[in-house]
């Protein structure tokens, strides 16, 4: 597997993100090694909150949430998915698979960091990957927060706007990641912040991850990931692990999943689920403070 590593100089000007990255090398499932990056903050002896970002963002997305969560006494661990942020970037689209991304995050979370009593916060692909981990390793998780995400099996059609996004990001000659993030927000995104989302991708050779991820979402019942996702959904539906459903009010991509999580998940019953107002798909960017406060309130009651 051929990889690229974004030069450190690309991350020199990051607003509101003073956290120094940590790194570990893991197996790439192809006979080689990948360097995976994460940031962490808060007391190391506290139960961890694992913040998983999605497509095409990186851990910078959680910058407004980390201070609120750590001020409440929580340890925060925020990885960059392989192909994103400061993590290594396989150069071929075919190097990416749903199963590999689950395994890469499993290796980091459990083999490298040995996280236990985890509170998962998953948005977009952070939920697609994190919910698989929570279902397949239930002994490691104490709580789950789903935020503008899902666990698709290909049995329900994806919305038209998602197909438009998939077509665009797969076919554009170059990808303006900052523009895609801004388009998924309701509130203004400054040029400085847009540049921070662009930082991991100095040119299009680094963009196999963003191009690959939409094609890995199961859209037919016989997709390679569909059976594993059905099994995970079944496990989570009967799980007593507390689940907070914290979706925004303006996400045309995943918004329809909020009432389904609230209805179908045993762990979501009897919990007051917030709706984050005036926020789009990237609710951490639009309303990170509000989402973080909702998580703090949820965990205070556990």
Question: Can you tell me about this structure?
Answer:
- 36% of the residues lie in helices and 16% in strands.
- The chain has 302 residues and is α/β, with parallel strands linked by helices.
- Helix 3 (125-136) crosses helix 8 (226-238) and helix 5 crosses helix 6 (191-198).
- The longest helix is centred in the C-terminal third of the chain and has 18 residues, at 283-300.
- The N and C termini lie far apart (43 Å).
- The mean pLDDT is 97.
Order of helices and strands: EEEEHEEHEHEHHHHHEEHEH
Percentage of residues in DSSP E strands: 15-25%
Helix/sheet category? alpha/beta
Percent helix: 25-40%
What is the CA-based Rg, rounded?
18 Å
**Uncertain residue ranges:** none
Question: Can you give the mean pLDDT?
Answer: 97
The separation of the N and C termini measures 43 Å
Oligomer: single chain
The gross shape turns out to be globular
Annotation field: number of helices:
10
**Widest β-sheet, arrangement of strands:** 2-3-5-4-7-8-9
Count every beta strand, where a strand is a DSSP E run of 2 or more residues. 11
Largest sheet: 7 strands, mixed
């Amino acid at each position: 597997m051929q990889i690229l590593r974004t030069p450190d100089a690309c991350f020199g000007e990051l607003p509101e993100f003073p956290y120094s990255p940590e790194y570990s090398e893991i197996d790439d499932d192809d006979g080689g090694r990948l360097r995976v990056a994460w940031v962490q903050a808060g007391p190391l002896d506290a139960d961890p909150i694992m913040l998983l970002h999605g497509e095409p963002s990186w851990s910078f997305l959680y910058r407004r949430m980390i201070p609120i969560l750590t001020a409440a006494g929580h340890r925060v661990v925020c990885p960059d998915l392989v192909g994103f942020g400061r993590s290594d970037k396989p150069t071929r689209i075919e190097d990416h698979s749903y199963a590999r991304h689950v395994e890469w995050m499993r290796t980091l979370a459990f083999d490298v960091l040995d996280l236990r009593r985890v509170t998962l916060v998953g948005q977009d692909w952070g939920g697609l990957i994190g919910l698989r981990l929570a279902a397949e390793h239930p002994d490691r998780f104490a709580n789950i927060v789903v935020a503008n995400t899902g666990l698709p099996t290909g049995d329900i059609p994806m919305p038209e706007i998602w197909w438009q996004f998939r077509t665009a990001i797969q076919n554009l000659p170059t990808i303006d990641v900052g523009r895609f993030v801004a388009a998924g927000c309701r509130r203004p995104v400054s040029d400085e912040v847009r540049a921070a989302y662009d930082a991991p991708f100095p040119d299009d050779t680094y963009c196999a991850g963003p191009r690959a991820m939409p094609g890995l979402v199961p859209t037919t019942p016989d997709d390679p990931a569909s059976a594993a996702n059905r099994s995970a959904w079944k496990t989570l539906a009967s799980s007593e692990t507390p689940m907070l459903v914290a979706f925004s009010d303006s996400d045309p991509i995943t918004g329809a999943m909020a009432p389904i999580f609230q209805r179908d998940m045993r762990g979501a019953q009897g919990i007051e689920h917030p709706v984050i107002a005036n926020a789009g798909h990237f609710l951490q960017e639009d309303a990170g403070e509000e989402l973080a406060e909702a998580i703090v309130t949820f965990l205070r009651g556990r």
